[in-house]
Every structure is written in structure tokens, then in C-alpha cells.
Amino acid sequence: MIGALHGVIAWKEAPRLLVDVGGVGYEVEAPMSTWLGLPAAGGAVRLKIHHVLREDASLLFGFATDAERNLFRALLKVSGVGPKAALAVLSGMSVDSFQSAIAAEDAGVLTKIPGVGRKTAERLLIEMRDYFRQLPGTPSAFSGAGLTRPDDPVFEARRALQALGYKPAEVHVLLESASGTAHTTEELIRAALQRAAARPS
Question: Which one is the CATH code of 144-201: 1.10.1060, 2.60.40, 1.20.58, 1.10.8?
């Protein structure tokens, strides 16, 4: 398996490029986050590679950083997400922006990515939480918001508010403001609803 390429760009035409490594040309497809940072043809390039072997093709996907390649690989594990959709995610937003969207449970932001519909966005919100929570330096939005602990009052309050029709991003904001003064599930829900009622229409 090919894990990295270090060579010269023979040509590039978004989202593809040809990397000449010792006289052998490797055709690579890259997300816009990587492609826009590439030098012009003739320039040296070093790419992290994800190699996909199929019966009818050998595909190379190139990334400027380990974080991009790792996220790409994690996205491929999500039901219904293939290489094309994973590249679209990385082309539509940075790794940090995607992580923030998952933490805020903001499906609306994800649906703005070409090819990502509502159902896919909701699957991403559910299935990518564990990936980010396991990363070093994970923000408190993943470690402390009670995303996966059913006995956590915040988790229960989040689920109840979503059942009432509030969007995930709204729930995140409402609970964030309520968490300082409320502790039980009932207190959190009551404080969140009071905050929602007080907001200007």
C-alpha cells in the first residue's frame, strides 16, 4: 500500500494532480483544502496518501496533513459515505470547522456541503462524536457535554429538548447557558425553555 508520495507536480487540474516520483507518475485526487495549497506544476510536493484498491481500479487520495487524512479515513467508516462524499466534506470546510459543527450538533452547516443531505448530516453527527472525543486535546464540547452517557442530566435534557422540536444547534446554546445554574435534568430543561421563551422572536 502507498502511504506517502514525495515528488514533483507534473500537472494539476482540480481536484486531481499527477505527481512524478523518480519518473513514475501517480495520479492523485485531493480535497480543496489540500489542492489550493499546492505549488504550481514543476514544484515539489509531499502528500499523505490513502490508497484504495478495487477490482477495477487503484485509487490514490492525497492530503497535506495527517489530520486531513485521518478525518477522511474516519468519514469512510460512516454508513453511506464514500470517498467522493468524504472529499466533499474536506473541500467544504476545514478539519477544525467540521469538528466544531459536530460538537454543536449543527446539521444545517453540514447540509451546505455539496452532496451531503439531511440524513447523511445526521449520521455524521452521531457517528463522528466518538472519533473526535478520542483525539488528544479534544474540546470540552465533546468530553463534558454528556453526548453518550444516558445517565447524565445534560444528555437527558438534550434528548428531551430535541424531542420538543428544537434543532441540535439551538439545544447546544440553550443548555450551555443553563448549565451554570441548573444541575438536574428537570432544572436544565426548565432553564432552557425559559431562555428560549425570553429570546426575541
Answer: 1.10.8
Residue 60: per-residue pLDDT:
97
* Interval 139-154 mean pLDDT: 52
The CA dihedral of 170, 172, 178, 182, to the nearest 10 degrees, is 130
As assigned by CATH, the class of the 66-142 domain is: mainly alpha
Q: Where are the domains of the chain?
A: 4-64, 66-142, 144-201
Task: Provide the pLDDT for residue 139.
Answer: 52
Superfamily of chain region 4-64:
Nucleic acid-binding proteins (2.40.50.140)
Chain centroid offset of residue 140 CA: 17
Backbone angles phi, psi at 7, to 5 degrees: -165, -150
Predicted TM-score (pTM) of the model is 0.67
pLDDT tens digits for range 94-124: 898 898 888 888 888 898 888 888 888 888 9
Planar angle of CA 109, 111, 114, nearest 5 degrees: 115
Distances (CA, A) of 107 to 65, 89, 112, 126, 154: 25, 13, 9, 10, 20
β-strand partners of 41 = none
Separation of alpha carbons 35 and 146, rounded Å: 37
